[in-house]
Design a protein that fits this description.
This protein is α/β, with parallel strands linked by helices. The chain has two domains: about 5-105 and about 210-240, NAD(P)-binding Rossmann-like Domain (Rossmann fold), CATH 3.40.50.720; about 105-210, Dihydrodipicolinate Reductase, domain 2. Helices cover about 35% and strands about 25% of the residues. It has six helices and eleven strands. It has helices at about 15-25, 55-65, 80-95, 105-120, 140-155, 210-230; strands spanning about 5-10, 30-35, 50, 70-75, 95-100, 125-130, 170-175, 175-185, 190-195, 200-210, 230-235. Helix 3 links the parallel strand 4 (about 70-75) and strand 5 (about 95-100).
């Protein structure tokens, strides 16, 4: 039996990559492609909804999928833990599944996991993320998720040290971790997590060079998982045994 997928935002860069990967995925078929302006009634009859729109549109897509009791895979950035908490009871009440993937790159997931594992050993942690100038949200969903993982990993030792947090130039704090966002031409996606302690620092860097190649393995992993998910699932790390708290 083929799982019929409704892909919202399928004409965008990420949506096009997802469409191409599903085309080679056994048991799945994209049967309808919607834009950010499409009537969400077109989701009717789908077995799985994939959202690759914008932060402003994404919430409507997720709600529409939940109302129809259709599992949804959210590939749109901008879903913080607080925002996900808002829809969690709706997912549970509907008895469906909602999978939120801030980044499909396995390298990015591993980088964030390693940074979170090391975070309890350093008092200072800061994130610098850079994306192309057309990215509409900041900080990135990947940076937000990384900061949330660092905060969870430090649950027993407390928040990181972030002096002068009242100064805007110190970045936006997520889970006490300052995040600095760069938006500039010539960049696809890059993240640095800088951990510092007395006399030393440790930096984890991930650089996306070719999105189609970098995201494909994660998409192949996430789509089948989303089709059978129950409740809320966050991040590719939830599908890989990395030994992390979430």
């Amino acid at each position: 039996m083929t799982t019929q997928v409704a892909l919202v935002g399928g004409s965008g860069k990420l949506g096009s990559i997802i469409h191409g990967v599903i085309g080679d995925l056994d048991g799945f078929e994209v049967t309808r492609v919607l834009t950010s302006r499409s009537d969400l009634g077109e989701l009717d009859g789908a077995d799985l909804v994939i959202d690759a729109t914008t932060p402003q549109v994404s919430i409507d897509v997720v709600r529409a999928a939940i109302e129809r009791r259709i599992n949804v895979l959210v590939a749109t950035s901008g879903w913080s833990a607080e925002r996900i908490a808002f829809v969690r009871p709706l997912v549970e009440e509907a008895g469906t599944g909602a999978v939120f993937i801030p980044n499909f790159s396995l390298g990015s997931v591993l980088g964030s996991a390693l940074a979170a594992a090391a975070a309890p050993f350093f008092d200072s942690a800061e994130i610098v993320e850079a994306h192309h100038e057309k990215k509409v949200d900041s900080p990135s969903g990947t940076a937000v998720r990384t900061a949330e993982l660092i905060a969870a990993a430090r649950a027993d030792v407390g928040p990181v040290s972030a002096p002068h947090a009242d100064q805007r130039a110190r970045g936006q704090q997520v889970g006490s971790v300052p995040i600095h966002s760069l938006r500039r031409p010539g960049v696809i996606a890059k993240q640095e997590v800088i951990l510092s302690g007395p006399g030393e620092s440790l930096t984890f860097t991930h650089d996306t060079v070719e999105p189609a190649l970098a995201y494909a393995p994660g998409i192949r992993l996430a789509v089948p998982h989303a089709a059978r998910a129950e409740g809320v699932v966050i991040g590719l790390e939830s599908m890989i045994d990395l030994g992390l708290r979430s």
